[in-house]
Amino acid sequence: MTEQEAAEAFSGFAETAFVSGMERSILQVEDAEIIALYWERDQKAVEATEQKYRHYCKKIALNIVGCDEDAEECVNDTWLGAWESIPPARPEVLGAFLGKITRNIALNRVRDRDRMKRGGGTEALPFDELGECIADSGSGPEETAEAGELTALLNRFLAGLPEERRKIFVCRYWYGDSVSDIAERFGAGESKIKMQLLRLRADLKKMLEREWR
Predict the structure, then answer these.
(1) Count of domains observed in the chain
(2) 99: closest CA among 70, 65, 56?
């Protein structure tokens, strides 16, 4: 399994682990109004989406493509993707829905860019780390598991983690945040975050080895 495939498999995890309680209820009320505009095919839906989620989606794209111009194109493609998907989709949490669209668009752009370079480009480091972890756990994914099965295993792994460890994992391997950004977010030193990520990958590898044995 390649780093690209590992990153795509991980996209099934709901990044709404960051949203809880009152924050979630407020977001859902606002999102419901925007989603209603999409179902009415009102162009104001796109305007409201861009106003609320532009920074969020661009951060995801920029972490993956590493270029401001490409990130802008990914964000613009996200609004088109949302317009084409809603309806029939009716997302429970619009931010999660948009984030997944942005992430997939950005990953596809990286793949296409690397093909044009005939292998000269590189994936973002977080996805290299995740891909190596999964590849090193054995031949199971290639021979016995579909991408959906890997996503289910990742979700199960994440569900069993304490909240802070889960958030650190998601920051690194869903959003593609740098170690320094994660350290700042959690008020920890970079060396501590690196060690936590190392242990998280080791724990994931052990779980996958058990499943694919």
Answers:
(1) 2
(2) 56
| Collapsed DSSP state (helix, strand, coil) of residue 50 | helix
8 Cβ neighbours under 8 A, 6+ residues apart: 104, 107, 147
Return the top range by mean pLDDT from 15-19, 141-145, 183-187: 183-187
CATH of the domain at 131: 1.20.140.160
Q: Can you give the pLDDT at residue 26?
A: 47
Quickly state the pLDDT bin for 10 (edges 50, 70, 90): low
107 lies in the same domain as 131: no
Helices (H), 11-85: 21-39, 44-65, 68-85
Tokens 């606002």 identify what position?
30
**Residue pair 95/16 in contact by the 8 Å Cβ criterion:** yes
3-state helix, strand, coil in the chain (%, to 5): 75, 0, 25
Where does a domain end: 116, 150, 170?
116
Backbone angles phi, psi at 162, to 5 degrees: -60, 155
Query: CA-CA distance, 4 to 134, in Å (whole number)?
Result: 11
Are residues 187 and 102 located together in one domain of the fold? no
Dump pLDDT digits (tens) for 92-105. Answer: 889 989 999 999 99
Tokens (6 digits) for 78: 């996200």
Query: Within 13 Å and on the Cβ side, how many CA atoms surround 136?
Result: 12
Angle formed at CA 33 by CA 91 and CA 45, multiple of 5 degrees? 80
